[in-house]
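User: Thanks for the earlier help. One more: Catalase. Can you show the sequence and predicted structure together?

Assistant: Of course, both are below.
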Amino acid sequence: MPRKPATDTAVIVPADIAPGKPVSGESRQKASPVPPDAQLSESYAEKQGDGGETHQVAADGAPALTTSQGVPVADDQNSLKQGARGPTLLEDFHFREKIFHFDHERIPERVVHARGYGAHGFFELTDSLADISRADIFQRVGERTPAFVRFSTVAGSKGSFDLARDVRGFAVKLYTKEGNWDLVGNNIPVFFIQDAIKFPDLVHAAKPEPDRAFPQAQTAHDNFWDFISLTPESMHMIMWAMSDRAIPRSFRTMEGFGVHTFRLVSAEGKSTFVKFHWKPKQGLQSVLWNEAVKINGADPDFHRRDLWEAINGGDFPEWELGVQLFDQAFADQFDFDVLDATKIIPEEILPVRVVGRLVLDRVVDNFFAETEQVAFCTQNVVPGIDFTNDPLLQGRNFSYLDTQLKRLGSPNFTHIPINAPKCPVAHFQQDGHMAMTNPRGRVNYEPNSWGATLGGPREDPVRGFRSFAEEADGAKLRIRPESFADHYSQARQFYVSQEPIEQKHIADALVFELSKVERPDIRARVVSHLINIDDGLAGTVADGLGLPELPAPAQAAQPTRSDLPPSDALSIVKNGPPSFKGRKLGILLSDGADAALFGGLVKALDKVGAVYDVIAPKIGGVTLDDGTKVAAKQKIDGGASVLFDAVAIVVSADGAALLADDAATQDFVRDAFGHCKYIGLTLDAQPIFANAGILEKLDDACIELGAAKDAAAFVDTIAALRFWPRELKVDMDAK
Ligand code: HDD
């Protein structure tokens, strides 16, 4: 008998977010068009219906509070005592059960990627790959496959901040009709190491140092750079990790990559190599490092809040799925080994073919049940998709299953609704902790002779998964192939593909990180590798660190590099957003501010699909010059300008007088200026800028908002990411 996927969750969905119930507050401003997953959101009250009519309803119509056994609770405020002041009684089963459950609420956080945020959506095929892969998901154009995506930082603990300089996880679970396919990728297409046996060392070195348990969520410390400087294969990844890719503006504005070379396998058994790319429709966007540091204080949840607000606001983030397809002949003539996860295949050499789109349109109902318990495994592939011999991928295929058992506590983690396939599941695995979907009947083995009705599931030699029959021979060796030896050429290619401002950010990041390293010999050893990448970069970093002299170039397996042509696809600035859509303007208002101008800004933002927050001296809001009252989203000291893509200071003369000496207001404008943001300001706002010491420095990106008619042009102008020429004036290191 085919098993049905789990239909139930151990976590009771609170009645106020159960399907069909009105949801209060901003969290559901615009309901998702996709109905909530029935598996996950069966409400408590509906569950009671299973056994017939419920009578466990409290006086006001809410569900009656019960114990885990379903016994209605009369008093949840006081434990059972002997007399009013007497000892608490062991007999109090409700109290004991409640505390027992609370004591066991935590599960181990992920050893890496502990801090993450997930959302539901779908994948839609736009271009058939039926001739190349028999994977069901790639057959029918227009068909949608349910998806769950979890974004994450790598190094920090679950409670760390979002804007760490770090790689971001981009893990996608696709619930296909022939099983779950997990594409467990990152927002960077290469990795630090070539062989999975080095992963524990890499992670130990990156995490807080074991004696002191700091620094949290950052690589700016001796152990990390010590390991890196002794691991030249990491140099390409280091270029990416020190670039603005590692401080994205939003999960919505980053690319995703499957990293490894995988295989697509056709119905005839033919294999085609593939690299997977997720390309954000929102364009690539990042923040500045000084801004990131301040965002972490102003809103440590910046990225998760952004995703939550965008999806609930109906602005569903979207990515294109692109594939780079190639055969063995291409692999043989390519300069690098396609099994080496520290290498890319530049898009200019092998264009990315777009075959589908991923849309995230529903936030989770319960963070723990879904985002925390989701278990991604690289070995979750489906018929038509297969692995290559990339040694990093091969190692991952062991690690993920193993870690889920540790984290979730039972081999039955596939019974948890977020992990359960949405297609029929039928096998003879049984029992274990928390078994939720248990087969009926007598037969739990095969082969058996109980026939098609009683005998349970059978193999399917036609549709079933078959590994690609790759030939393999050779001696057993612990060795790196020669073809993995060039660690610098692609690192250089990445560097030379950046705009000058992006190159500056890479040098700044290296100087920042290495300035936190206490041992001078480690700093110098990193610079010795940079010389092999780019002399100019090495010189700038050495200068920024105050090194007395340039060290000798690092000796590595293949210390020389070849000069590869730049690739525009590698730059964020060259792939930025076309408009202000999906971004946020911070509008600082005061009492008496120009109502028509404010209205004009709101209209222009709405027209391009952007949002705004009102920041005001008091959270109660302001009264504009026409008497309109506007509520504030943020008080000035809670709504720092780092939280916005651009800002507008729309204040009256009285408002400016009130705010001109206010430290939080000065920080607001100074940071917006220092972070090269576009700034709109009324003439009356000038005293604020004067007191902040920047009135004389205002430049072309500081735009006067004289009247309502200026609003639309302003919103057009701020489509550009930042006004980069300013950075060269406000940064000591650039002078
Ligand atoms: Fe990994 C989690 C991505 C190498 C072992 N990894 C994890 C997650 C992502 C990645 C996105 C979080 C999944 C989620 O949201 O739950 N990992 C990568 C990429 C890699 C990579 C793109 C290189 C190309 N990972 C890698 C190696 C190993 C691991 C080489 C071990 C040999 N990764 C793990 C893990 C984690 C994990 C320990 C921790 C939590 C989990 O798996 O579920 O098994």
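User: Great, one quick takeaway?

Assistant: Residues 379 and 397 are 5 Å apart (CA to CA).
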